[in-house]
Amino acid sequence: MGQGFLTPRTIRRAGVLAALGLAVAVVLGRPLVYDVDGVSMAPGLVPGDRVTSGPFPLLDRLRRPGRFERWVLVAGDGEPAIKRVVGLPGERVTIAAGDLAIDGTTVLKEPRQLAEFGVRVAAGTLTGTGSWSLPPREVLDDVAGAAGRSVVLLPVRDVGFAAVVTVAGGPGGAVRARATVGRTLVAWRLPAGRFAIVAGRLDGHVVAVAWRLPGAVHDLAGLSCLPPQPPRRWSVAAPWAEADAPADASPPLALAIEPAADATAAIEWVDLWRDVFYRPAADGVTVWNLAADAVFVLGDHPAASRDSRHWGPVSRAALVHRVTTAVLADR
After folding, report:
1. In a shared domain, residues 221 and 250
2. Which of 5, 9, 187, 249 is deepest in the core (most CB within 10 A)?
3. What is the pLDDT, as a whole number, of residue 262?
4. How far is 156 from 75, CA to CA, in rounded Å?
5. How far is CA 113 from CA 85, 124, 203, 237, in A?
6. How many domains does the chain have?
7. Rounded to whole angstroms, how far apart are CA atoms 74 and 89?
8. What is the rounded CA–CA span in Å between residue 54 and residue 276?
9. Which CATH number belongs to the domain containing residue 251 in this structure?
10. What letter would DSSP give residue 260?
């Protein structure tokens, strides 16, 4: 029986082919980088920021888009743009009273989605206090630092608070924290530690959640409207039932910490946040039916965005690359 041997020439050829294959893989696998131009995705993305695709960006053409993903796309006017996918193929998209509905059901954003494109309205530092409250007030759909075109600002009802609470006590010590949104009361028992508490009115619901913050986190006032590492789900998400509430004002909000014999607590600080306020098209259109190969895209700052409200739904083929990371400029 004969034996096969690799000659030096064959080995060199295999090495060259392997090197070429590796070089091609490196080139094709390299994420693409895009500069942000405009404020349609503010406050999360503003001019000076950069976004990147994931590895092997050519494969994004085969990816099925998900709701609330950010994509680089060829816009309806033929220009490149960064927008968020909100409507998927075959769905009926409706914008009403600032909310987004799909097939007749209002889409309730989860905490991590609110953290990504909700807007911080006001911040205040509280030291050594056990209570905070805010009466109904007018909150407008503007974005600080987003110099968009001149528009009439509209009142936003989907408003809430994000607080950080520190609890100190013995092994069995705990305090009771109570959040109030409108006429709804939500309570938690918090043991020793550092916690985030978020509550408010969102997408036709009263929402609330509390979670333990990582001990290594010190900078809690970054660009997000929520403290870091929010959970995936709300612990409370009840339909908003206050039909008599003013349509042009936020609900009354409050947070109180009840003292305990074996534990003490303080509210470190409280931020006020608002949800993105979706506007109808300029011609008054509020409903769009999507074809089997179409998606609906919107900007995070609707008052300054040109998107599917202006061009209509876009083909899935117009989605070029999914945005996976953002490199933010100094702000």
Report:
1. yes
2. 249
3. 79
4. 28
5. 13, 23, 12, 15
6. 2
7. 17
8. 26
9. 2.60.120
10. B
Tokens, residue 311? 């061009």
Which sign does the torsion angle of CA 111, 117, 121, 125 carry?
A: positive
Band of pLDDT at residue 1, cut at 50, 70 and 90:
very low
Average pLDDT over residues 238-265: 89
Are 328 and 322 in contact, with CB atoms under 8 Å apart?
Answer: no
Q: Are residues 115 and 254 in the same domain?
A: yes
What's this model's pTM, rounded to 2 decimal places?
A: 0.86
- Are residues 289 and 253 part of one domain? no
Q: Give the span between the Cα atoms of 297 and 70, in whole angstroms.
A: 9
Give CA 36 to chain center in angstroms: 17
pLDDT at 169 over 60: yes
Which structural domain range is residue 171 located in?
110-274
Instruction: Please tell me what DSSP assigns to residue 317.
Output: G
Residue 329: DSSP 8-state: P
9 pLDDT band (50/70/90 cuts)?
Answer: low
Does residue 25 lie in a domain region?
no
Terminal CA-to-CA distance of the chain, rounded, Å? 74
